[in-house]
Amino acid sequence: RLHPIGMAAVVLYGRRRGASKNGENLQHVTVLRKTEWLRIQDELCGVNKEEKRIKEAAKQRENLHLQSQEVVKLWPDTLHGQRLKRLQEKKIRKEIEEEQMRLADLEEAKYQEERRKEIIEKAKTQLYCQTDRVKGLHSALLLTEVLKERDAQIELKQRRKSANIDVDKAFLHMVQTREDEASKQEQEKAMQRKLVRQVAAEDLRNQIKENELLRERQKLESKKDGDEIQRLQALHQLERRMEAERQANQKRSLMQHITNRYLIRATDAQKQEAEEEQRKLFLSTKQKIIKLRKEKEKEEAQTHRDRIINKLTVTQQEQAVSEEQKIAKAVAESEAKQAQQQLEEDEKKAAMLKSISVHRELMRQEKEENDKIERKKAQEALQAKKEADRIFTEKQQLKVKKIREEEREVQDFNAAQMAEKGARLQQLREQEHEFEVKNAELIAEEENRFQQYSQQIINAAAEAQRNVFPLCKAAREGIGGGSGPVFSGVRPSYLVQDRTGAQMPKYVSLATQNIKKLHEAVDIQDAKRRLGFTW
Question: Coiled-coil annotation: which residues (predicted)?
Fold first, then answer.
């Protein structure tokens, strides 16, 4: 809200007081100073000069701080300068370390590359050594070493044998001398043993005499002991007989007691048998009485049954007479009822025949109408069929035309496919030819390498004075361990066509080569002239 200010002046500008150009009352218009006007505008616009001033002061301080930092950061004797210097030195050390690590990595990479190449070369060498031909060559080299070692062992054995002959002579002389000395010592010992045996024999004869006297005394003592033993044995036999008689008397008395007990038991058994027979007799008598009682009851029941049957017979005869009368009456009533039903059926039949004739007439008329409708429908169907046949014929013609076009397209497609297939087959043949050429080059290179390696081994073996025949056999031309001729760098094997499957040998000599050359037609014109076909 605006308030009037005391310093404000009222401007009239030649008009009447209190009047304005727009008809407003100028007495209520207030004129403000510029500062007041700006203050009011700021308040209305929400501008805070104090806050703005504070922000400008803070911004100015910030600028001054940045300027002071720019000035101070180049001074080396400040904390910030020292910190920057340490950071710079740390950065330089880090770069130096990174450069050293990079150089070390490069050296490690070079070392690893060299190591990798060495390993690859070693692996290639090992793989090459694992091939059949190289294995065979190494086996032949080992065989040459074995043959050389065997020859050396044979030579060593001969030398040892020749050296052992002289040693055996000296050894035999020494043994003969030792045996003579031993025989003399043995004779002396034998004489000593003979004297010792004579002394021992004399002592033994004296001991035998003493033993005979001792045995005589023992025999006398044994005889005395035998007489005493016989006397004691007779006394013992007498005591045994008396004991046996006493036991026999006891046994007789015991048997008599047992016999009396058996008699008592037999008497008790007879009594029990008698009681059992009386009991069985009582049971049989009782059963007979029960049987007679049942037969009597059965006769009484049969008599009662006969009386009841007689009564029933009389009653049924009376009922039969009354039933015949009832049947006759029922038959008469049934015949009258059937006659009435027959009359009603005749009337119904006549009415039915009349309705049937009427129905037949209606059906004949309806059939005639239906026949007309059917004939009309058949004619319409014939026309529709003719139209359908015409449309079908046109469609078939279009279909045949389309099929011919499709067949033509198929022929063109097949021709293109055949051409493409021929080009592909030609390309495959060319690729196969290139593969065969490359394979032949590889086989030739491998054969050359193998021959060089085998020649080095053969030369080294020859210089070492080894038997080089197995090496030459293993180093012959052609891949494979067969005995056949070489074809395209491969030496195949030819097997026998039987259960053994053994490999056929190769007998190649100058005569066989001449015969092969004679019978093999290298030049057909030469063969014709040789056979006499000249015209």
Answer: 47-123, 197-230, 282-383, 425-463
